[in-house]
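Q: How do we represent a protein-ligand complex in a form that can be generated token by token?
A: Start from the inputs.
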Amino acid sequence: MSDDELRPPPIRAANWRRGIEAPAEQDIVSCVSCGLCLPHCPTYRLTGRESASPRGRIAAMRAVQEGQATIDDTFRTMMDECLACRACETACPSGVPFGRMIEAARAQIEPTRPIATRGLRAIGLKHVLSRPWAVYAAGAGLGIAQALRLDRLGPASTRTVAPRVSLTQLARPLPREMGSGPTAALLCGCVMDVAFRDVQRDTLRAVAGSGYRAVRPRSGGCCGALAMHYGYPEAARQMARNRIAEFADAEVIIVNAAGCSNHMKTWGHLLKDDPKWGPRAAEISRRVRDLLEIDLATRSRELGPIACHDACHHVNGQALGPDLRRVIRSVGGQPVEIPDGERCCGAAGLYSVLQPELSAQLRRQKAVAIATTKASTVAVANPGCAIQIAAGLREIASPIRVVHPAQLIR
Ligand code: SF4
Ligand code: SF4
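Then emit the structure tokens for the protein with iron/sulfur cluster bound:
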């Protein structure tokens, strides 16, 4: 046999776009295509399609990596249909880091979208979210539209899952500082500060009552999770730098939204190639605590059965399921499990707006499952899930109340 015959066939160049982050080859090849993740994947369970499964999505990434396929409409649909819930990551015995792979794949598909779609997404994800005043103005605009019932002019699917903005709450300033002790800075965030101001207030009170000096940074703003999930990693890095600067003096950074706490714990990795901000990012990430992780001072009352909704970014990202139940018990509630509780509710960041049909099916399944618990209250510690579950319960005419755990603390 000649040397030429022994030489392996030439490897074709990867078809990822240059200059944009892409799924890492070592992550792609760590999938052994065993399929053990499939029964845990909500989109596979809904559709039965391999193309809507983690294994199918990774196979598509591998095809692009090996130069066998390009980033076309089919690839884009496969990545767009993913909830990024990371249930597959938790289930995977090979430790495939699907969360960071799907984020990188989304960065790759973003430039392939029609220009008008891309422009709209860029305005929202890069420009509005990075400016707290713009988030506030957008929230006020939504609140006015809802008060005048102008939101009825938009598509019903979007109206159903739009956050409800109270203009009265929006006009009422939140405290800058409460309590004394080690400084605990609250992430102001985007949706939380606009549509869940009562939860922000209750969180500050709960943290201050637990022996901290609870503060809200003056500048405020988004952690960058949505930009990261939807294809704008550079915008996410800039938002992370802004938040890191404002949290410099805090001993603890408190986050009451599952998606945000999960994302902020990855800031060190996100900025690892930035010589100036990387070390600071790693240090601040270590100080991030989800509200459920704090040893909160609570008073026990007779609250009765409370259904426990596990946000994907609590259970799959941070293993905080037991903490939610601990907090519920500490306030005098009896935690009640929701059947098939690990299945995503379909909120998944902007999924309910961008993939309304799949999202509506998941929303209905979740609402029906919650209704079977017969609890009068469901505890939900993530704004997207809270909006989605409240909408789902309304759709099935269920009177079950959606509350954030912070609202139960007295
Ligand atoms: S992601 Fe993990 S569980 Fe799923 S097919 Fe690949 S190796 Fe198997
Ligand atoms: S992140 Fe969720 S929806 Fe996406 S492939 Fe994994 S389990 Fe399925």
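Residues 29 and 211 are 48 Å apart (CA to CA). The first helix runs from residue 3 to 6.
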